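Progress against Task 2.4 (sequence-to-structure conversion) is shown through the following example record, which the project officer requested during the mid-term review.
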Amino acid sequence: MALISVDEALARLLTGVKPLGAETVPLASANGRVLAADLAATRTQPPFPASAMDGYAVRAADIAATPATLKLIGEAPAGRAFAGAIRAGETVRIFTGAPLPEGSDTVLIQENTSRDGDAVTALDSAPLGRFVRPAGLDFTKGEVLLAAGTRLDYRRLALAAAMNHPALELRRRPKVAILATGDELVEPGEQPGPDQIIASNHAGIAALVEDCGGEALQLGIAADRREHIAGKIAEARAARADILVTLGGASVGDHDLVQEVLAAAGMDLGFWRIAMRPGKPLMAGRIEDMRVLGLPGNPVSSLVCGVLFLRPLIEALLGRPPHRRDADLLPLAADIGGNDQREDYLRARILRENDGTERVAPFERQDSSMLATLARADALVVRPPHAAPAPAGTPVPVLRLPQG
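Structure tokens generated for the chain above:
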């Protein structure tokens, strides 16, 4: 099977993907989840003209000329409106958030008054409507404030609460089963043998899944034996995973068994091998309703492919527009060489100058096993196939990586 471009692979991967179903979730459990339908306000906020400050509710005409002395006839704390109406020459003590009494049209802040018993003297005038929040200042009943596909955070959850929604219709979180493969791998904390290494890809991919709004299901490490890999695939299907991510073993070497076992399990292969670096041996397919994404075994390759392919797939299942692959253009901080036939993603740091301008500096060593380099990176510099050498100062496309 010939190498295909990154853009073609992404288009094939997302073809036919439909958002998952909805479920009702309590507001308190909705952080990080995605709305399945538009959310409209069930009330107007504020529902009445309200004071924005502590002070006195007055008629602006009564304090047009100052000093002016008014008769105090009551008070209006938040949550308890003044029952009567204000007439000429009268005032009501009012507190922030309280309804404006009938007849008043302005709030005179307490710093601009003096008081002697029931006599309140205005020391400064206030124009009509000063420190008054009109009804509907924030939103009105029926107004759609949060669109379907919105991912909820602390700001949007506060808004949903103010709209008086105790529960929300949210997209079901995509369940992503993650399977690492290889006799050379052991779990973090275990003692590796003389020919083994610590598995790391599955931890990073699980975190990426959770960051994207999915639910990660760790299947552990499968040995390089057909029956072991087949058993783990069966676990993913029994768990009704929406996506099965395999890590390593998708090539065609004597010990690369994943693609063969997936085919035996009924996988319809969509594509295999991408014209990109790192990440050439990427594989995608389907087993009935479960999508399969085979990521490379090298740690950096796996995580870069996760950002470029797994994240958009999860977003599509959540009904969100996939992250745009449009890149910023930043000038190079140093010369870089030409590129071959594969699209290259160079780990890089963004250098910020005192005047706010930015440059990008690819790391000198780009080996796909070097996780420490990826952890220090702010961005990926995208080098098109057959790109010519580029001197310092040349604008290059840059994909910014999420930062903690």
